[in-house]
Write a structure and sequence with these properties.
alpha+beta; 4 helices; globular
Length: 93
């Protein structure tokens, strides 16, 4: 087990995590082996080192496309994450 701290500094955390943390919940569902807590710009992740590294990589990818008008593209990235984890169902609005 490893603890990793990820800082999201290029986006507004409230927008990134989503209304009622809906985006963060989707991310949690996609990484069930990890325990995570998000507060402000900090996401703390505890779990398997390889899974935590993969998680950090995906969060940084999402952070790159999230700001401004690219928001729709970022949500497309959430959908792409879901395709990497077959069998996980998510609720659509």
């Amino acid at each position: 087990m490893i603890e990793r701290i990820i800082i999201i500094d290029n986006v507004d955390p409230v927008s990134f995590y989503g209304i009622n943390n809906c985006n963060m919940q989707l991310i949690r569902n996609l990484f069930p082996k990890l325990r995570m807590a998000a507060r402000g710009q900090i996401i703390k992740v505890i779990g398997d080192p390889e899974e935590a590294a993969r998680f950090e990589k995906k969060i940084k990818e999402l952070e790159e496309v999230f700001p401004g008008k690219e928001r729709a593209k970022a949500f497309g990235r959430f959908a792409a994450l879901e395709k990497e984890r077959p069998g996980i169902e998510t609720v659509q609005d």
